[in-house]
Design a protein that fits this description.
Elements (H helix, E strand, L loop, with lengths): L4 H29 L1 E4 L2 E4 L5 H4 L1 E4 L2 E4 L2 E10 L4 E4 L5 E6 L6 E2 L4 E6 L1 H32 L5 H26 L14 E4 L4 E6 L6 E2 L7 E4 L3 E9 L11 E6 L7 E13 L4 E9 L10 E7 L3 E7 L4 E3 L2 E9 L2 E13 L2 E6 L6 E5 L9
Antiparallel strand pairs: 1-2, 2-22, 3-24, 4-19, 5-14, 5-18, 6-13, 7-9, 7-12, 8-11, 9-10, 11-13, 14-17, 15-16, 15-18, 16-17, 19-23, 20-21, 21-22, 22-23
Helix pairs in contact: 3-4
């Protein structure tokens, strides 16, 4: 028989196809001998080497305390912080304050001679004199009417004049008292005594004896009560659900190594900062020893009460399409994928928010061998 070149080439091609098919069939058989799929359940074949590579454990419920760390900044409480600026322009004639000096709302800080304050004094004394005159005239008209020699019209006019002058005097009196000057001890031309508005300590002093302070001048002294302070923390919007008013937290500062401070959540802002996607949280902290200074950076650890939670090894959670899942055992050697949501971590374990219940059995090691199962 004569075999042509074309016939030989055709026979070789058929042989290659048959060999390739045999190899592919062998590969497919090998790929499915370790496990088989029944709908969404992966069943590991009897005697498969995978059985020794996969470890499973029962999910347990344990007590877990949620912790959240964030950076914070120390800030003085606004109602316990006052910048002192004179209400009038004038010249400082006397200074009482010094750095670190303790104050009350009546403590004098410095005196200032001010033409504006003298003008307010003149108005006060003028209104006081006019009120006294209107009061005498009103009383005289009352006596005249009582003795039958006065008219009702004159009495009413005197009463109206008295009421008007009384209102003007009260306005002038308020103008004096707003500067904490004592009207009963006021004398025309006396300097204005600038007093501390709050109890605390003088933490800034820029008062110079003899200096002239303009009416648009900034503060020349600062008084603050730093026995309690605020710490401003920035909490990401995804974590804000874990923060609650009056919740406990601990504070650490690099300037105070080894010292752990306690605080509680005072306020949670209602607005999210769009640039950082975070919410401002105010923590009130006892600072009687003045260890924390406004402007310091600290680390805040928000700690919630311990609650029963499901924790599993982090290696048990697989990832696919930005979602986490675990392999749950439905029967010996049979597993299904189940999506889970994690909410935190504790060492090498993760906290499960949803998707698993205590008592279920999952693959804790070797789950990656089943990732290709479809």
């Amino acid at each position: 028989m004569v075999i042509t070149k074309t016939t030989a080439f055709y026979s070789a091609g058929i042989l290659c196809i048959l060999l390739s098919a045999a190899c592919n069939n062998k590969t497919a058989t090998t790929a499915t001998t370790d496990y088989t799929m029944h709908h969404d359940t992966i069943v590991i074949s009897a005697g498969s080497p995978l059985a020794d590579k996969i470890k499973a454990a029962t999910v347990q419920e344990t007590s877990y305390q949620q912790q959240l760390f964030t950076a914070g900044t120390v800030r003085a409480i606004p109602t316990q912080y006052a910048e002192i600026a004179p209400p009038f322009k004038g010249r400082v004639t006397r200074a009482y304050l010094s750095l670190g000096m303790s104050t009350t709302p009546e403590t004098p800080l410095f005196e200032i001679s001010s033409p504006d304050f003298i003008a307010a004094q003149k108005i006060f004394f003028q209104e006081k004199s006019q009120l006294e005159q209107a009061q005498r005239n009103y009383q005289r008209q009352q006596d005249l009417v009582a003795h039958g020699v006065g008219t009702q019209k004159d009495l009413e006019e005197a009463q109206t004049a008295y009421d008007v002058e009384k209102k003007e005097y009260e306005n002038a009196l308020a103008g004096i008292r707003i500067f904490k000057a004592d009207p009963t001890k006021l004398s025309l031309g006396q300097p204005l005594v600038v007093r501390a508005p709050i109890s605390g300590q003088v933490i800034e002093n820029k008062v110079i004896l003899g200096q002239f302070i303009k009416d648009d001048a900034t503060s020349v002294a600062t008084v603050a009560n730093l026995s309690r302070i605020w710490i401003v923390g920035q909490v990401k919007e995804k974590d804000i659900r874990h923060i609650h008013i009056a919740g406990n937290c601990s504070i650490e500062a690099a300037a105070l190594p080894g010292k752990l401070l306690k605080g509680s959540v005072y306020h949670i802002n209602d607005i999210v900062d769009e640039s950082t996607r975070s919410v401002e949280v105010l923590i009130e902290v006892d600072n009687h020893d003045r260890a924390l200074k406004p402007g310091m950076y600290v680390t805040v650890n928000f700690t919630n009460a311990a609650v029963p939670s499901v924790l599993i090894p982090s290696r048990a959670v697989m990832q696919a399409n930005d979602a986490g899942f675990v392999f749950v055992q439905t029967a010996p050697g049979a597993y299904v994928r189940r999506k889970v949501v994690t909410t935190g971590a504790s060492g090498e374990q993760v906290v499960i928010a949803s998707g698993l219940d205590a008592g279920e059995k999952i693959i804790t090691e070797g789950g990656f061998y089943l990732l290709e199962a479809k």
